[in-house]
Amino acid sequence: MTTTNFSIHAYMQLKSFAMDILKQGSKTWVTEVLGNLETMWDGIESTISKSGSASYIIPLQQFIFKFLMKSLVGADPSVSQEIADSGYIMLDRWLAVQLLPTVKIGILQPLEEIFLHSWAYPFLLVSGDYKKLCDFVKKEGKEVLRRGETEFGLSAEDSLHNLLFILGFNAFGGFSVYLPGLMSRIVSDKTGLQEKIGTEVKEKAGSTLSFDSVKEMPLVMSLVYETLRLSPPVPTQYGRARKDFILSSHDSVYNIKKGELLCGYQPLVMRDPKIFDDPESFKPDRFMNEKGSELLNYLYWSNGPQTGSPSTSNKQCAAKDYVVLTTALFVAYIFSRYDSIVGDSSSITAVEKAQ
């Protein structure tokens, strides 16, 4: 087997493993999202009543960590006090040493490039955290790890580290970047969006919120898509050309050679004025109706069009549909519980319970 064939085969194994984790997790996903949202908002309400305002950044991360650990790993963080209290912080630190060399901080240049982007940070900085997470997953996520070995031919180590990568980098990292921005847009709204969403949720939710019920909420879904358009969780994607091909834009043509490295910058792609009217503006109803549905062909936040489907033969985000529907469920829960929430980019100052 050649090196190239091996790498493709290994990628397909890992993608299959990731998709299986999501499939198995779907059995408890909605229940865990809703249950942990209830805990999160109970805590926020309690803090507001005591202090007059509540930061939602840490509660969001705790919510994300707990529901993902239960859904993806099949492990309850509460069985370990340290993981329950600090697991999300361990993942934050692990993510930080990987992402800091690549992300824009906004300090005076060239100081940022010289001191932050010129080297990789040593794993030693987070090795203790990572070992604690590994030990917890080994003990509490045995069934998922077993499937990685017996059904997908992965070694015990590959199963463990790829499960942690899916949990920590793909899922926790993505939601931790994306949901605070969504919250900020909702709580700072001055256009009547909250009232419109609340009306739609109350009309469409039925007796129980579910993935099926949020699919019937066009404004909620459009809000999710528009937030992904303007604030994709992963702004850049990379890939090597597997063959020679022609890459075309509206007005240019490029000859791509096999082996060349390509980079896609999503914030630019999804602000194309020839596709999106007034592309810099946030329009929560942009993706509604027939015209809006056609725009989904150009929504590329997941390393492929929103109308596409992830598979082992492409590099589209395996959890593409879970991200969209989980976020829609997140929004729908808020407006099934509240008529309005008021705040800013990091905190909530008031909530009005739904009538």
TrEMBL record:
Keywords: Iron, Metal-binding. It comes from the Eukaryota. InterPro entries: Cyt_P450 (IPR001128). GO terms for molecular function: heme binding; iron ion binding; monooxygenase activity; oxidoreductase activity, acting on paired donors, with incorporation or reduction of molecular oxygen. GO terms for biological process: sterol metabolic process. Belongs to the cytochrome P450 family. PANTHER family: CYTOCHROME P450 26 (PTHR24286), INACTIVE LINOLENATE HYDROPEROXIDE LYASE-RELATED (PTHR24286:SF49). This is Cytochrome P450. It comes from Carya illinoinensis.
